[in-house]
Amino acid sequence: MSTIVGRNIEKRELENAYNSNEAEFIAVYGRRRVGKTYLLKSFFQEKECVYFQVTGIYRGPTSEQLTRFAKELEATFYQGATIKVPQTWMEAFDALTEALRQIAENRKIVLFIDELPWMATRKSGVVRALEYFWNRHWANDKRIKLIVCGSAASWIIQKIVKNRGGFHNRVTRKINLKPFNLHDTALYLEYLNYQCNHQQTLKLYMVTGGVPFYLKNLKKSYSIDQNIDELFFNVDGLFFDEFNEVFSSLFENSDQYKEIVTLIADYRYGVSRNIIDEKNKLTGKGGRLSKRLADLEYAGFITSHIPFQHKKRGLYYRVSDEYCYFYLKWIAPVKDKLKYDHTINYWQNNARTPGYYNWLGYTFENVCYKHIPQIKKALKLEEFSMASPWQHIVKKGDQEQGAQIDLLFERTNAITLCEIKYTDEPFVIDKEYAQKLQQKIAVFKKVTKTNKQVFLALVSANGLKKNMYSEEIINDLIVSLDDLFKDIKR
Predict the structure, then answer these.
(1) pLDDT tens by residue, 206-260
(2) Shortest CA distance to 403 belongs to which of 285, 309, 292?
(3) Residue 3 falls within a domain, yes or no?
(4) What global pTM score does this model have?
(5) What are phi and psi of 237, to 5 degrees?
(6) Is residue 332 part of a domain?
(7) 410, 350, 349: which is closest to 379 by C-alpha?
């Protein structure tokens, strides 16, 4: 039996679909390497059902895709006996439908089409054929659970979920499979028998973003830093070229997508659509840029938000995929050097520089944004409180004070401002920093003109060292790393 670590929400959704007394059409998408195929295969192969799986071939011609489809039909329905290879997808799904007619009426049938976007080559007709057979034959067969899956998340969303043609409103369930959170990352490392504490797990998370495939390849006898060197900085390492491979497998014109992500990564507090439009060179303006930003967000590489009280400024974007940010800040600048001088232990030799702590600060903020439910619970905030960053930028020469709020929670009558800090030891608020925090609160109240109560909280990787200043300003509103690792039942 395959073990599925975490994924409780997704397993519950799949269980409900499997047990339903009607046909189900499930769209599953998510970042490459996140474990979509493993989850679906592990879940359904343990069920008492007829299980048919076919996987698209990356850049494979339609003839090759159809040959593989025929082989899977032979293995699942004909005990390996040879059948005629279909010449079109209409013929292929016709042959599948004929095979389904031979299955007993009381047996459930799971049809899993993995990496459908790779099958949908130009003029392949696979989507049109799938539309026809779902609407004409399979949608009325309560035995059938059809699952289409793909790493090209934007393709699945646009061509399947939001389809305006034959698939319009046909999807019965959709699952956006995301990387593990900190809690499930810790569970997975335990399952892999890789020994590390919360602090060390956080460090791994800052590099891998909780992507199971990256974690799966850790060597148990290596320290975290040794593993990072071996996997990411070694020219022959498994993930040395991962950034390029991920983008080229997901996007046509991948250089244009990489340019956008690289541009956004230069802005710690996010960057507006207008600045991206102004500075990018490879991507066309207007609709083309909008589509590529949406594609990147669907794929989980970037996140958009509207800063508190700044709707007029429109969307801001930041890189939210930890691996991508790690690559752009650490690997990309030295990649050519590593290729030619065969530097060893690069990470271990450079991981305590000023740039290292800047990277930790940004990435820890990113991790916190992904663990908003845990922060809310630790601060005992209502479930409906709204979360957002906030920034007040002053013009050059202006005497007014600017301010940056890492994260705030707005409720009906109160606002909690969160200061996010990564330090190796408990954070210390001294007199100077206390004044800085008081000034930040004053600027926020003045600029926003809020009449609500304003509280200040601290999210700190290693807690807070209590002193007279912390008692005066924070008032025990502290979120620690242990809080971020808690499992929030949903």
Answers:
(1) 999 999 999 999 999 999 999 999 999 999 999 999 999 999 999 988 999 999 9
(2) 309
(3) no
(4) 0.92
(5) -70, 155
(6) yes
(7) 410
